[in-house]
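Throughout our pipeline, every protein is held as a single compact record rather than as scattered files. The remainder of this section carries one protein's record, kept here as part of the documentation.

===
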Amino acid sequence: MRKILYTIGEVADILGENVSLVRFWSDTFPKFIRPVRNAKGNRMFSDEDVATFRQIHYLVRTGLTLEGVAKRLRDDRASVETELKVLDSLKSIRDQLVEVRSSMSGKRH
């Protein structure tokens, strides 16, 4: 079951980044990330926000500036999402191959 809203700490864990960076990105990209506030005033992020954070994380890691990230999200967001899906698929295939290799190395013929 998927969560409805994620805390800033949970988003940071998903991305493997620190909370201050997630907060910075949230403040830097208000057109793309729209957190809601809970009763305590903490930011809570939707699945869509988490997907956007993943896109930002990916684009920053490819070397784009923050302005470049905003431009790609504004002009070509669908291709960014497609690139992320392809990367996720490749990582999954790699994990499966590593698992197969591990299971085969344990067996003697």
User: Anything to note?
Assistant: The chain has a mean pLDDT of 92. The domain at 6-105 is CATH 1.10.1660.10 (Multidrug-efflux Transporter Regulator; Chain: A; Domain 2). The helical segments are 8-15, 19-28, 47-61, 66-75, 77-105.
